[in-house]
C-alpha cells in the first residue's frame, strides 16, 4: 500500500465519471467534497495487501500520527491509482479503504472519504511546511509499529518506563495528560464555565478584527495590567539581573537569522508585505531581544543576565482551535530570556526557573503535569539532571523524544494544568536554547578573552498574560463545580473594596473611607446609585468584589464597619482590621491603582 500525505490549507474534489464498472454509488454526501486544514491521504491499494489482516490498522496508525503532528482538523481519504502500477482489484481495495476510514473514526479523527472508482477533479492548496508532504509505504507482513515509541514516562524515583508498561495508581491529572498527548483521546464536555467569567470581566473577541484577536474592557484591562506588573516582579525574584526592554512587532525576512528563526514555525507565522518587503509579526519576544543584545558588549562577569519584554505576540492558530483567553492569534507574552555562559550554567539555573514556575501555579491552588520534549541522546547524557527536575515535581512526567538536530533547543518543558473539563492546557514553559546565539551572532567575552556564544533559557514563568488569567478563571470554575463560591484573588480583583452608603446622607463618609483605602494603594469604588441596599449588595456579589462595606448611621458614629467578605459572610471590623486583611491578601503582589471612576453612577452600562 502506498500513501501520499498532503497537509492542505484547502482541498476540494468533484466526481466526474466512472473509472471502473464496480465504482461506488454516488450520493449527495460523497459526489463532491471540501475541507480546510485537512490531511489528505492519497491511498493506492496494491495486490496482496489484503493478505495481511493488520494492514488497515497500520495504515490508519500512520495517517493518524501525521494528522496529530500537523494539527489538521480532519482527514480526507482519497482513493488514488497513480502511486503504483501493481493495483489491487476493486473488490480488494474498497473494503480496505472502508476499514481504514472506520479505524480512524474510532480513534477520534474526523474523516471524509472520496468515492472509489471515479475520475475526479480536485484542487489542493498545500501549506508548505516540512511535514506538509510525506509518503508512506506499507508492505504486507511488515511488523506494525507500536505507535508510542516517541514517548516514555519518568517516575519520581528516576525510572524510565514505556507508556505501555506504566504502573497502576497514576495521578488522575497525569492520566488526563497521557490520554490527550499519547493516546489522542478527546474529552468533550460542552462550553467551559470560565467563558461566562470572561464575559463578566470584559474579556471578549473583537468581531471587527481577524479571528483570534481579543478586546479588553475596563475591568479586564486592570486585570491585564496587574498580571503584567506581577510577571515583571516574578522575573526579578529569580535573583539575577533582569533588564526590561521594548521593541517592534515586525521583522524583515531579508535578514538571515530572522528567516531561519521564522522557518522553525512554518505556517503558524503571520506574514505581510509592505513596500515590497516580506515581513513577519513576531511569534514571541525572541527576535527583538536577540536583535538587541547582539549589539551589547558583554563580559562573562555580566552573566547570567535576563531580558524581559511584555510582548505582543502573534501566532496564526487554526480557526477551530481558537479559545478565548487561551489559544489566540494575538496575545501578550511576558517573555524572559536568560543568557548563560554555557550549558552547565543554564542547566543549573533551570532548577530555579523550574521551581519558580511551580511556585507560581501553586499560589493559585493548582498544580502542573509536565511534558519534557528532548532527544534521546540528551536524556542519556543528562539523566541525573532530568531526574532532579522530576524529583522537584514529585510526580511522573511525560517524556517526548524528538529527532536529533531538528530543534534549536535541547530541552523544552511544557507545564499543563488540567482544566474544568479534564483537558490539559499548557500555561508555563521553559527551553534551553543552544542554537540561536550563534544564529543571531550573540557573543560574550570569556575569562580568556575569547568570544563565546551564550546558551539561552527561554521562559514565560507564569505563561502568557491571557493564559495566566485563563488559569485563574478556570480555577474559579473548578471551585464552583465543587460547590464553592467562585472568586478572584484579592490582588487581582478590579475592585478590591466597594463602599455602599446606606443613603446619600452618608456619601461623604463613604468618600472619606475610600480616600483612606486608596491612600494605602487599594482599588476602591463607591456605589452611589439610587438603588436599594439589597440590590447594590447583590450587584457587588455578581462582580465577585471581595470586600463590601456598608456605611450607615451606626458605622459613621462608632467607626465599626459592617463588611461583607466574599466566601466568609458578614463581619464587623474597624478600618485598621480591614487594612490588615487587605495587606495580608495582597502581600507579595503589585498594587496597581484603579482605572475606573470612583462613583458607579458615572459609569455607562455595558450591554
Mean pLDDT: 93
Contiguous uncertain segments of 5+ residues: none
Query: Tell me, what's the shape?
Result: globular
Distance between the termini: 58 Å
Strand order of the largest sheet: 8-7-18-17-19-20-23-16-15-11
Question: How many structural domains does the protein architecture include?
Answer: 3
- CATH topology call of the largest domain: BirA Bifunctional Protein, domain 2
Q: What share of residues are in beta strands? A: 25-35%
Number of helical elements:
16
C-alpha Rg (nearest Å): 29 Å
Summing up helix and strand content along with how strands pair, one would put the structural category as alpha+beta
CATH architecture of the largest domain: 2-Layer Sandwich
Helix content: 25-40%
The H-level CATH homologous superfamily of the largest domain, spelled out, is Bira Bifunctional Protein, Domain 2
Query: How many strands in all?
Result: 28
| Main beta-sheet annotation | 10 strands, mixed
Task: Tell me the name of the CATH class of the largest domain.
Answer: Alpha Beta
Summarize the structure.
By secondary structure, this protein is an alpha+beta fold. It is built from 16 helices and 28 strands. Helix 4 crosses helix 12, helix 5 crosses helix 12 and helix 8 runs parallel beside helix 10.
Write up this protein.
The protein has 16 helices and 28 strands. It is an alpha+beta fold and 607 residues long. It folds into three domains: 2-137, D-tyrosyl-trna(Tyr) Deacylase, Chain: A, CATH 3.50.80; 152-473, Bira Bifunctional Protein, Domain 2 (BirA Bifunctional Protein, domain 2, 2-Layer Sandwich), CATH 3.30.930.10; 490-602, Anticodon-binding domain (Rossmann fold), CATH 3.40.50.800. It has a ten-stranded mixed β-sheet. Strands 1, 2, 3, 4, 5 and 6 form a six-stranded mixed β-sheet that branches. Strands 25-24-26-27-28 form a five-stranded mixed β-sheet, with helices on both faces. Helix 1 (55-70) crosses helix 2 and helix 4 (194-201) packs across helix 12. The chain is globular. The termini are far apart. The model has no long low-confidence stretch (mean pLDDT 93).
Amino acid at each position: 500500500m502506498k500513501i501520499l500525505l498532503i497537509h492542505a490549507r484547502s482541498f476540494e474534489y468533484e466526481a466526474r465519471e466512472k473509472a471502473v464498472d464496480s465504482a461506488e454509488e454516488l450520493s449527495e454526501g460523497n459526489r463532491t467534497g471540501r475541507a480546510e486544514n485537512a490531511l489528505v491521504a492519497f491511498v493506492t491499494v496494491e495486490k496482496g495487501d489484503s493478505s495481511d489482516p493488520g494492514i488497515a490498522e497500520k495504515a490508519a496508525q500512520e495517517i493518524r500520527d501525521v494528522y496529530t503532528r500537523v494539527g489538521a482538523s480532519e482527514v480526507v481519504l482519497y482513493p488514488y491509482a497513480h502511486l503504483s502500477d501493481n493495483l489491487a482489484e476493486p473488490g480488494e481495495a474498497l473494503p480496505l479503504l472502508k476499514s481504514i476510514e472506520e479505524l480512524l473514526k474510532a480513534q477520534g479523527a474526523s474523516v471524509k472519504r472520496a468515492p472509489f472508482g471515479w475520475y475526479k477533479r480536485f484542487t489542493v492548496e498545500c501549506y508548505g511546511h516540512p511535514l506538509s508532504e510525506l509518503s508512506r509505504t506499507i508492505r504486507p507482513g511488515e511488523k506494525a509499529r507500536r505507535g508510542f515509541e516517541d514517548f516514555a514516562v519518568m517516575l519520581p524515583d528516576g525510572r524510565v518506563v514505556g507508556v505501555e508498561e506504566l504502573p497502576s495508581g497514576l495521578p488522575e491529572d497525569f492520566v488526563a495528560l497521557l490520554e490527550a498527548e499519547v493516546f489522542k483521546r478527546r474529552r468533550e464536555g460542552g462550553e467551559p464555565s470560565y467563558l461566562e467569567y470572561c464575559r463578566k470581566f470584559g474579556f471578549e473577541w473583537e468581531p471587527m478584527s481577524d479571528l483570534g484577536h481579543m478586546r479588553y474592557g475596563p475591568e479586564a484591562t486592570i486585570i491585564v495590567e496587574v498580571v503584567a506588573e506581577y510577571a515583571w516582579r516574578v522575573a526579578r525574584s529569580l535573583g539575577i539581573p533582569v533588564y526590561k526592554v521594548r521593541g517592534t512587532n515586525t521583522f524583515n525576512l531579508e535578514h538571515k537569522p530572522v528567516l531561519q528563526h521564522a522557518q522553525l514555525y512554518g505556517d503558524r507565522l503571520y506574514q505581510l508585505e509592505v513596500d515590497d518587503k516580506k515581513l513577519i509579526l513576531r511569534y514571541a519576544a525572541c527576535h527583538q531581544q536577540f536583535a538587541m543584545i547582539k549589539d551589547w558588549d558583554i563580559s562573562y562577569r555580566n552573566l547570567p543576565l535576563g531580558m524581559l519584554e511584555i510582548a505582543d505576540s502573534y501566532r496564526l492558530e487554526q480557526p477551530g482551535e481558537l479559545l478565548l483567553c487561551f489559544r489566540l492569534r494575538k496575545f501578550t507574552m511576558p517573555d524572559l530570556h536568560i543568557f548563560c555562559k554555557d550549558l552547565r550554567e543554564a542547566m543549573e539555573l533551570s532548577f530555579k526557573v523550574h521551581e519558580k514556575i511551580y511556585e507560581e501555579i501553586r499560589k493559585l491552588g493548582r498544580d502542573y503535569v509536565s511534558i519534557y520534549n528532548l532527544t534521546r541522546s540528551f536524556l542519556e547524557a543528562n539523566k541525573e539532571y532530568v531526574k532532579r527536575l522530576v524529583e522537584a515535581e514529585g510526580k511522573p512526567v511525560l517524556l517526548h523524544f524528538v529527532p536529533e538536530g531538528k530543534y534549536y533547543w535541547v530541552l523544552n518543558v511544557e507545564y499543563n494544568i488540567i482544566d474544568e473539563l479534564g483537558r490539559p492546557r499548557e500555561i508555563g514553559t521553559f527551553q534551553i536554547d543552544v542554537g540561536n546565539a550563534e544564529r543571531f551572532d550573540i557573543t560574550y567575552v570569556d575569562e580568556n578573552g575569547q568570544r563565546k556564544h551564550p546558551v539561552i533559557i527561554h521562559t514565560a514563568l507564569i505563561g502568557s498574560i491571557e493564559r495566566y488569567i485563563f488559569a485563574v478563571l478556570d480555577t474559579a470554575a473548578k471551585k464552583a463545580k465543587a460547590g464553592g463560591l467562585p472568586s478572584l484573588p484579592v490582588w487581582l480583583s478590579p475592585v478590591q473594596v466597594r463602599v455602599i452608603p446606606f443613603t446619600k446622607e452618608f456619601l461623604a463618609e463613604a468618600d472619606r473611607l475610600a480616600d483612606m483605602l486608596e491612600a494605602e494603594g487599594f482599588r476602591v469604588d463607591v456605589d452611589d446609585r439610587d438603588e436599594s441596599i439589597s440590590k447594590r449588595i447583590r450587584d457587588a456579589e455578581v462582580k465577585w468584589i471581595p470586600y463590601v462595606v456598608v456605611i450607615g448611621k451606626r458605622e459613621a458614629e462608632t467607626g465599626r464597619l459592617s463588611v461583607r467578605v466574599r466566601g466568609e459572610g458578614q463581619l464587623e471590623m474597624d478600618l485598621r482590621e480591614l487594612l490588615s486583611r487587605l495587606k495580608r491578601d495582597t502581600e507579595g503582589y503589585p498594587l496597581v491603582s484603579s482605572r475606573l471612576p470612583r462613583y458607579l453612577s458615572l459609569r455607562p452600562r455595558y450591554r
